[in-house]
Write a structure and sequence with these properties.
By secondary structure, this protein is α+β, with helices and mostly antiparallel strands. The protein has three domains: 250 residues, BirA Bifunctional Protein, domain 2; 102 residues, no CATH class; 102 residues, Anticodon-binding domain (Rossmann fold). It has 18 helices and 24 strands. The strands form seven sheets. The protein has a seven-stranded mixed beta sheet with strand order 4-10-11-17-14-13-12. Strands 21-20-22-23-24 form a five-stranded mixed beta sheet, with helices on both faces. Strand 15 and strand 16 form a beta hairpin. Helix 2 crosses helix 13, helix 5 crosses helix 8 and helix 7 runs antiparallel to helix 8. The structure holds adenosine-5'-triphosphate.
Length: 526
């Protein structure tokens, strides 16, 4: 009901830079996201969620938790501490290798990730190839063979080969720790500072992304600890605790949502790249040798989870990693078409037995599972799904933001948030502030608010109230008018189509349940 496109209005086209700016401004104006400690001028890459943002974020988290934990008999959830024993991060490799290669521009004094500059360069080449391909597709019409064109057209081949060669050389140099070559590559490709256009670069240096602090009351007795840079390690160190106490049988999963902290070098993309953010991760423990089957399974399941939201399918694509981390034997990202282009939203990684084995080595404790079916003990292999909650929030917000010109010439801004995730599900509006209408509206509210987040709103003309709720993505507005007193019915107005329907009050709860509950999404995952 909510996704039907009405012929009442037309969509105004918007350039992507404008869209991103508008989404950021809208998020602040309507209580979704504020810069942190704004009265002190804020902090780079740290944000606070406001009244509507906190609800939307909670709903996305719930959707993930229900889909992963509640819907799977063999997945359980935990909530591990942010601080972990410092040896954890030695074992996981973060102390030695959780680095990003950074480079500064001497003229603009701006700092960049060298790998991101090169990845963006390769992406531009791919976009050029895509442009050539779509031009050719138009030219040739039905007879166009895209695969053939990709493989034979010299210009397209040239773009794609150069993109691949650049990424391959970067990956090899980073693997070898040859940072001089990374800089040489940036110079050879003529990559300029995207802000100033300058090509005057410093050397490339490695920078560890973990935030350290000290634990303990006296300086001499305190020890250095880290704010966790990922939630996954809290799952690995609890692998045996959960397996034993939950009597879990391989294959099984442990899920967790929670804060992670990274001292990101480049922090200029709103909540896409934050220094404090939230992850939703699941580690799936499998029998060695079966990991590729589960890797494919989780790739498919996770994409299904995204698509169940009903946003246009064109927003998603898989990106298989060419360069694998040393512990992984397969890895892919689900990328989302953010207003600044396709970027990683979620990672699905086959992490082998690396993490558990390293923890065995550093802790001296066995982290093995006895598999009664094959009468053997082993360290399980792991397939991980890892998604940033804040990135997911940004994906939804930017896809949901629409400016529409209505047939009567007026305009509206509407957030077409999937109804089950909307911060406010229902607005109850008495047409007038008198004649007993507020009392009836409050009765309806009292009934509905036990099940759904609702808002009561009696201020301003009804049209203005509708616009206010369009702007925060409220899927349904219920208007109580004078007829309500006689016919016990109300007008229900739908956010996306703006159509109105007269419904008996006693049918409201049923309607809401059908369209707004999380189960509408979960059903699509079966
Ligand atoms: P990127 O390459 O964009 O830095 P990553 O590959 O380091 O990301 P992972 O370590 O795989 O990311 O983390 C898993 C997920 O956590 C990512 O897919 C992303 O959604 C989220 N994430 C990672 N870093 C950040 C961050 N700084 N801010 C917000 N979300 C993040």
């Amino acid at each position: 009901m909510f996704y039907q496109v009405s012929n009442l209005f037309t969509f105004a086209p918007m350039n992507q830079d404008d869209l991103f700016k508008k989404v950021i401004a809208h998020a602040k104006e309507y209580g979704f996201i504020f810069p942190s400690s704004e009265i002190y001028d804020g902090m780079a890459a740290i944000y606070d969620y406001g009244q509507n943002g906190a609800e939307l974020k909670k709903n996305i988290r719930d959707y993930w938790w229900k889909a992963m934990v509640q819907m799977h008999e063999n997945i359980v959830g935990i909530d591990a501490a942010i601080f972990m024993h410092p040896t954890t991060w030695k074992a996981s490799g973060h102390v030695d290798a959780f680095n990003d290669p950074l480079i500064d521009n001497k003229d603009s004094k701006k700092r960049y990730r060298a790998d991101v500059l090169l990845e963006d360069y390769a992406e531009k080449l791919r976009q050029k190839a895509d442009k050539e391909i779509s031009k050719a597709a138009k030219r040739f019409g039905e007879s166009f063979d895209e695969q053939m064109y990709r493989e034979t057209n010299p210009r397209v081949k040239g773009y794609l080969e150069e993109a691949n060669a650049t990424l391959q050389r970067m990956a090899q140099s980073l693997d070898k720790g040859d940072l001089e070559d990374v800089k040489a590559l940036i110079e050879e490709k003529g990559i300029a500072d995207p802000v100033s256009g300058s090509k005057n670069w410093t050397e490339v240096r490695q920078f560890n992304l973990m935030f350290g602090t000290r634990m303990g009351s006296v300086a001499e007795g305190s020890s250095e600890v880290y704010l966790r840079p990922e939630t996954a390690q809290g799952i690995f160190v609890n692998f045996l605790n959960v397996q034993k106490t939950g009597r879990m049988k391989v294959p099984f999963g442990i899920a967790q949502t929670g804060k992670a902290f990274r001292n990101e070098i480049v922090a200029r993309q709103f909540i896409f790249r934050m220094r404090e953010f939230e992850q939703m991760e699941m580690q799936f423990f499998v029998r060695p040798g079966e990991e590729m089957k589960w890797y494919e399974y989780w790739k498919e399941q996770r994409l299904k989870w995204h698509k169940a939201l009903g946003l246009d399918e064109k927003y998603y694509r898989f990106h298989d990693h060419e360069k694998l981390a040393h512990y992984a034997n397969a890895a892919a990202d689900i990328e989302f078409d953010f207003p600044f282009g396709f970027k990683e939203l979620e990672g699905i990684h086959s992490r082998t037995d690396y993490d558990l084995k390293r923890h065995e080595e550093y802790s001296g404790k066995k982290l093995q599972y006895f598999d009664p079916e094959i009468d053997e003990s082993y360290v399980p292999y792991v397939v991980e799904t890892s998604i940033g909650l804040d990135r997911m929030f940004l994906a939804i917000l930017s896809a949901a933001y629409k400016e529409e010109k209505l047939d009567d010439g007026s305009e509206r801004t509407v957030l077409q948030i999937p109804p089950a995730l909307a911060p406010v599900k229902v607005a109850v509006l008495p047409l007038l502030k008198k004649d007993g209408l507020p009392e009836i509206a409050r009765e309806i509210l009292a009934d509905l608010q036990m099940d759904f987040p609702c808002q009561y709103d009696e201020k301003d003309a009804i049209g203005k109230r509708y616009r206010r709720h369009d702007a925060i993505g409220t899927p349904l507005c219920i208007t109580v008018d004078h007829d309500t007193k006689n016919d016990q019915s109300v007008t229900v107005r739908f956010r996306d189509s703006m159509q109105q329907q007269r419904l008996p009050i006693k049918e409201l709860a049923g309607l809401l349940r059908k369209d707004l509950e999380m189960s509408t999404l979960l059903q699509k995952l079966k």
